[in-house]
Amino acid sequence: MYVMKCSRDGSFEEGEVNPYGNIQLSPSAGVLNYGQGLFEGLKSYRKEDGGLLLFRPELNAKRMMMGAERMCMPCPSLHQFVEAVKQTALANKRWVPPHGKGTLYMRPMLLGSGAVLGLAPAPEYTFLVYASPVSDDYFKGSGGLNLYVEEEYDRSARLGTGGIKSICNYAPALKAMGRAKGRGFSDVLYLDSVEKKNIEEGNVISTPAARGTILPGVTRKSIIEIARDHGYQVEEGVVPVDQLLDADEVFCTGTAVVVAPVNTITYRDQRVQYKTGVGSVTSELYSTLVGLQRGVVEDKKGWTVEIS
C-alpha cells in the first residue's frame, strides 16, 4: 500500500509503497472522533496484451479535492494522487486478474490522523492507497437488482455531505440497507436523494442531477457521455417516483457494479418489473464502457491511462 503524510504546514511529503498492514492512530485522531475522512474507489484493468490501465483517475483526484475542501482538509495534488494510484497498481501487478476475469480495486483514503480533542481540523493528515483483486461476477446470474424505495430514512441531507465521499455518509445507510436485504431486496433507493440511479424511457435517459445530495460518480459521468455518443438524449434533473415506475428500463452505475440492470422496484405496495438482458440499453452501454476500460474499444476520448 502507498502511504503519504501531510505536515502541519499543509504540504504532503514524498510517499512510499509499504507492505500492506495496520496503521497506527491516536485514540483522539480526528478521523476516529469527528469523522474527518474521505475515500475514493477506482480500478486497474488488465489488457489483452498483459498491460495495465486506469480509467479516468484524474476525476477521482478532483473529487477528493472537492471533498477535502468541504471537510477542511489539505489534499494531495492531482499529480500526487494519480502517481500514488499508479505506484500502488504496479506494486500489486501480480494481483491484477487476467483480462476479462476481474480487476484490481483500489481505495485511496485521506484521513485526519492527527490527535485533536475538541471539534477542529486535525493537525496532521495521512493519505494512503490500498488494493484488492475483485471478481467481475458482481451480478452475474442474478437477473438484475431488486430494489426497495425507502421512505423512512434519508441517505443524505440537503446542503450536507452527500455530494462528496465522506466516510460519515455510509454507516447511516446500513440500517435501511440491512432491513431491505432482510426482506429479500438487493438494495435501497432513497426519495429526494437517489444515488446513481438512471431511468431509460424511449430514447431518453433520465438521471437525478449531481447537486449536493448526489455523488458526482465517475462511472455515472462516463455513462452519460457514452449514452449521448450513442444517440440517446440524457436529461439530468428531478426524477419523480411516478416517472421511475413508468420507465422501460432502469440501471445503476458505480465503480463496483459498473452498470447493473434493475429487475424490479418495489414502492409501497406496488412492484414494477423492467426490461433486462440482451438487447437492452443497459447491455449496450455496459459493453461500451467495459470495452473502453479494458482497452478493447478504441479510446478516442483519452480516458484511459496506461501504467508502466
TrEMBL record:
Q: Which GO terms fall under molecular function for this chain's record?
A: branched-chain-amino-acid transaminase activity
Query: Which residue spans adopt a coiled-coil conformation according to this UniProt entry?
Result: none
Q: Where are the transmembrane segments?
A: none
List, separated by semicolons, the cofactors it needs: pyridoxal 5'-phosphate
BP term (GO), one: branched-chain amino acid metabolic process
- Protein keywords: Aminotransferase, Pyridoxal phosphate, Transferase
The record's annotation in PANTHER family points to: AMINO ACID AMINOTRANSFERASE, BRANCHED-CHAIN-AMINO-ACID AMINOTRANSFERASE
| NCBIfam families given in the database record | ilvE_II, PRK13357.1
User: Can you name this protein?
Assistant: Branched-chain-amino-acid transaminase
